[in-house]
Amino acid sequence: MWFPVASLQYPVEAWGLGRIPRGPAELTTGNWWLETGNRALETSEVLMRKIRVIIAKPGLDGHDRGAKVIARALRDAGMEVIYTGLRQTPEQIVSAALQEDADAIGLSILSGAHMHICPRLMELLHDKGLDDVLVLVGGIIPDIDIPKLREMGVRGIFLPGTPMQEIIDFIAANVRPRMERV
């Protein structure tokens, strides 16, 4: 039985699955199909897996409208969002990230406690072996604190007025490398 090679080009090119079979003999042996099919399945599972994001309001800050708006925007963008609620400790946030197998943690901090909460959170993530989880902070962050937060491992810092699409794009671009290692 002969299958037109053109019908195989899309999966081969789209997923980088290797080479196109050389002829009917190679198609009927089964090895090519088995190897290609397994790689296609592995690749599609990674591509189809939703990005899992924890959104948390740490500390005593009680203003959660912004966190809920971000959670909704991320969900609408196709991500799986777990909102932990108000007044979370760094320990609770890291525990949720571990239990939920999170790809990213987004902290909404309006209280000015970011320089107390973020170091503890980053320390706990390191202790639990979650160094590859993307950490983002949004809220009222003075310019002088931004380099310090980046130094401790916070990858994304978003100030009031940041467009939602910029946050979505940042997460998608920076979580994908982690997901490819899964």
Quick structural gist:
The chain has 182 residues and is of the alpha/beta class.
Explain this structure:
Strands 2-1-3-4-5 form a 5-stranded parallel beta sheet, sandwiched between helices. The protein folds into 2 domains: 6-48, no CATH class; 52-180, Cobalamin-binding domain (Rossmann fold). It has helices at 6-15, 24-29, 31-48, 65-76, 90-100, 114-127, 146-152, 164-180; strands at residues 52-56, 80-83, 104-109, 134-139, 156-158. It has 182 residues and is α/β, with parallel strands linked by helices. Strand 4, helix 7 (146-152) and strand 5 form a beta-alpha-beta unit. The protein is 52% helix and 13% strand. The protein is built from 8 helices and 5 strands.
Class based on secondary structure composition and strand pairing: alpha/beta
Domain count: the total is: 2
CATH superfamily of the largest domain: Cobalamin-binding domain
Q: Helical percent range?
A: 40-55%
Strand content: 5-15%
Biggest sheet: strand arrangement: 2-1-3-4-5
Shape: globular
- Main sheet? 5 strands, parallel
First CA to last CA: what distance?
37 Å
Mean pLDDT over the full residue set = 81
Could you outline the blueprint of secondary structure elements for this entry?
Layout: H1 6-15, H2 24-29, H3 31-48, E1 52-56, H4 65-76, E2 80-83, H5 90-100, E3 104-109, H6 114-127, E4 134-139, H7 146-152, E5 156-158, H8 164-180
Parallel strand pairs: 1-2, 1-3, 3-4, 4-5
Any key phrases for this structure?
single chain, 182 residues, alpha/beta, Rossmann fold, 2 domains, 8 helices, 13% strand, disordered N terminus
